[in-house]
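Q: Got a minute? One more chain.
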Amino acid sequence: MGVGGSFWDLLKPYARHEGAGYLRGRRVAVDLSFWVVSHSTAIRARSPHAREPHLRTLFFRTLSLFSKMGVFPVFVVDGEPSPLKSQARAARFFRGSGIDLAALPSTEAEANVDSPVKRRNALFTRYIDECVELLEYLGMPVLRANGEGEALCAQLNNEGHVDACITSDSDAFLFGAKTVIKVLRSNCKEPFECYNMAEIESGLGLKRKQMVAMALLVGSDHDLHGVSGFGAETALQFVRLFDEDNILDKFYEIGKGVYPFVEGFNMPHIDDLPSPSTKSLPRVRSPHCSHCGHPGTKKSHSKDGCNFCLVESLENCVEKPAGFICECPSCDKARDLKEQKKHENWQIKVCKRIAAEKNFPNEEIIKLYLSDNNFDKESGVPLLRWNKPDVEALVDFLSFKQNWEPSYIRQRMLPMLSTIYLREMASSSSQPVLLYDQYEFHSIQRIKIRYGLPYYLVKWKRAVRSMTSNGLPGKQTELEGNNDEVVVLDGDDEAVLLDEEEDEATISQSTELLDEPDVPQVLTDDKSCFLLTDEDIELVNAAFPDEAQRFQEEQKLKEAKSRARKSKLNSVSSIFETPKGPRPTGIQLSIKEFYRSTKGLDSSDSPKKLPEEGQTAKDGSRKSSGVDLTKNLTKSARRRLLFD
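A: Always. Here it is, folded:
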């Protein structure tokens, strides 16, 4: 939730829509609790019998972020919630259940608050612990916050440790975040919304402390109610009246009953201010004619005429139209004074409403939002390190939790392993090693467009081994079958073929769910096994510059040949192009031109009536009869007669 009052709707006009390549090579802090809650709910809505949806979503989404989008994710786990948030969470739970805690006795209310919330927290904590274990097997850095997870994400972003935050809690801006990504689906072709604090400041004029003030008025995760009568628009209009440096001090004054819009030492108390109906406006508008609406009385206009109507008598004075507004200086001044008084009355009304709230502003909420103590300071700056995944431990873990086949898990892990392999090759000058101890880089197949971005389709060749690690001869792998088989990697370093019918239970579970990465393609040629994976172009260029340069030269040569072939075809077609203009007589029509001409004749609306056989026309010439005389002729003879 974050800040209440439809706070996201205020920020939406200032969101930038970015594509999948925006986060490539950047560090991003991920609010793990947000992922577990939102995406597990989405999966259960699609498939109510899904097994451990939080683990499945986290596994595939992390692989997609790391390999497909090239992101370096940092996962943040919530710590102990503040007492205010615990109370607000319990109130939200019982409000959704329709139970009125105020109607219960104090001891019974405390018991009812603790029991369901504790059960829910225990189940959610188990989910989080399982997700953390999965992330550790994947080699991802996991940080535990002292309080709110989005608070630590925002602090990491504010201090420059990460480039953006992924969370749906709008109070990340109140904790100091600079760039927030609300919703990110790595398998979606549509761009995602990215909110930048600098653009919000220039558009709405809101800074961090002003957003904290809005949260005090409209409510937040720590105070569900806020101040009664305040929505997002009203709160925005009110906080804009103060600067960021003194807005919280002004709120303290309003909470004490002091009216903050009067400068000086003798600031009046809000209760001593007059109500809007007891103080009338001073008369600043000069009298106006009731007939034409211009300055001056009707009597003076009848005697001396109207200078604005430019007449000398009332009979010719122009009658004012409906909705007439006088633009004279006195009317402008009166309108300005009226708007000023209306604004002052609104300020008094709002300040009285705020002063009626108890314990306003809440100092604990202000300290929570402005604190930068979201991780253990004694341990220093959090260490962000991305390690190699422990594939075997991961296989054991997911086989037990998800009941997946080991070969299925290794197959889905291959895009992540190839990305790590290319990054290691790009950063080191050592001799090439094998991908997953099985495959070596072979060549670049082609350029592939995916989600609007270009990728290299990289070809990996199965390495040939003559001896195994224990000195025994290596096993020879034979690949046979059709394209309906899925090739996966088994634990004994062999390519195992699984038929789709045998693996239907595993694949059907993942067809309609979120963020499943692409399965590596399989290519067999001359009894050799090849894998085809989509890789980042810049990463492949850095890892294998010679092969990338060779591929680029081949592409340029192919493009040159293609352009030459097209130009040659164009020149040949221009030679045989049908000449424009009237065709000379005696030249045979092409078959298309012939049928086009005859079709027009056959479809005429008023065909001429042919004279009967033996009759002559008026001009005395003998015309053809209605009987087809060429019916008994051969096809070639009829064609010669028609074209002659």
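A: The longest strand covers residues 439-450.
Q: Perfect, thanks.
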